[in-house]
Amino acid sequence: MRYIDLSTPIDASQWEPEPVTHEIVTPAEGARQMAKEMRENFNLEFDPAELPDGELLSIDNLTLNSHTGTHIDAPSHYGSRANYGDGRPRTIDEMPLDWFFRPAFVLDLTDAGVGTVDASVVEKELDRIGYRPQPYDIALINSGAWRNVGTMQYFTDFVGLDASATAFLLDLGVKVIGTDAFSLDAPFGHILSTYAQTKDKSVLWPAHFAGRDREYCQIERLANLDRLPRPYGFKVSCFPIKIAGAGAGWTRAVALVDDED
């Protein structure tokens, strides 16, 4: 079995619209901090100087939101009400784990340009690769956007799915749709300029808003989809971090490919 990392890093040195902070507490600083916390919280005393080199453990303190790096959007991210079930969209900690370890397929949309593609493009690509998705397959969109990770262009130049393309995949029984782009929808600028010209509200984040009518999850900010040896015939593991009540959770997405591939 070969493992292909499909994840982008959480990296405070890279450009983000909402900056990430990463404070590294050294092992020596960690020793002093731990001594202080043990004294204040548990009434325990120890002298950090007695430790080898005066060091205990390093600690990383990060400030970021749950949509930084490779992450999975839960149904509750798409709105406070759902038009299915009891009307309450589930949060990331409530999603069934069996959605996130499944056979997967990848669609090559690298020539699509900035904006969106519709169902006909998705269907044509499935015909090209000769695959008919099965219920609960994980769909992956290779837009080529991951090559711009760490730059402003990553957030402005990519292709997403329109309402018809999203519905097409959901009709096939797909529950998780992933993309290497910042969003499964078109870039913000493209959405807003199209709406300004047309006043058509259906162009406003249709891939996300589809989740108000039908329960599904998105994986955003994937990487290395071009390293997959074939468009199907592999599995993806992408279990989300269990954040109570959250609309998204980070994931270390990995493709599992048989050695014979």
TrEMBL record:
InterPro entries xrefs: KFase/CYL, KFase_sf
Designated name of the protein: Cyclase
GO biological process, any: L-tryptophan catabolic process to kynurenine
Gene3D superfamilies in the cross-refs: Putative cyclase (3.50.30.50)
Highest taxon, organism lineage: Bacteria
MF (Gene Ontology): arylformamidase activity
